[in-house]
Amino acid sequence: MTDHSTDHDVIDVLTTDHQEARELFDQIVGTTDPEQRRDLSDSLISELVRHSVAEEMYVYPAMRDHLPNGEAAVEEDTNEHKQLEKLMKELEGADASEAAFLETLGRLRTVFEQHATDEEAQQFPQLRANIPADKLVELQGKVETAKKIAPTRPHPASPNAELFHKMVGPGVGMVDRLRDKLTGRST
Ligand SMILES: [Fe+2]
Ligand SMILES: [Fe+2]
């Protein structure tokens, strides 16, 4: 599990999120049990939707305000989030016991990796360079609160599973239901 004790500001939190997503991709590929693949994929989708919504609510507006090329960067990143969402919806509906499932997962992973690597190499360092440290810490709080609105782990073995299924439920439509929960509660 990822250690959160070194998270100091919003950039640390977002980078940790990316790292957790990478670990989940590895775990999904690393198991052959379809049920486990389904559960881990639901966790991955939940993580990525929460991360994307929090970025769009708090981080992308800060990029727009503080980065020299902010407007263009936000437009590009938002488009990539839409691509990710489309692929997550495909994955929601995919049969975890079929070979095509891993093919869909692979396409999601490619787009995610490109997007996350870009953020880590370009936008995150620019945010650090252009935004005062106390503002980055304030953004950390906002992002963490936004993400908490939806439960994190739909895995049946986790204490959050029951809450997750009550609030969101797995399977087709999960991306949209999660996004509604996250944005509806915060506006
Ligand atoms: Fe993003
Ligand atoms: Fe991100």
Helical/strand content category: mainly alpha
Q: Which hetero compounds are present in the coordinates?
A: fe (ii) ion
Largest sheet: none
Low-confidence stretches are none
Q: Give the termini distance in whole angstroms.
A: 32 Å
| Helix-strand topology string | HHHHHHH
Helical content band = over 70%
Shape: elongated
Number of domains: 1
Give an account of the 3D structure:
This protein is mainly alpha-helical and 187 residues long. It has one domain. 78% of the residues lie in helices and 0% in strands. It has 7 helices and no strands. The radius of gyration is 16 Å and the shape is elongated. The model has no long low-confidence stretch (mean pLDDT 87). One fe (ii) ion binds at residues 52, 55, 77, 81, 115, 119.
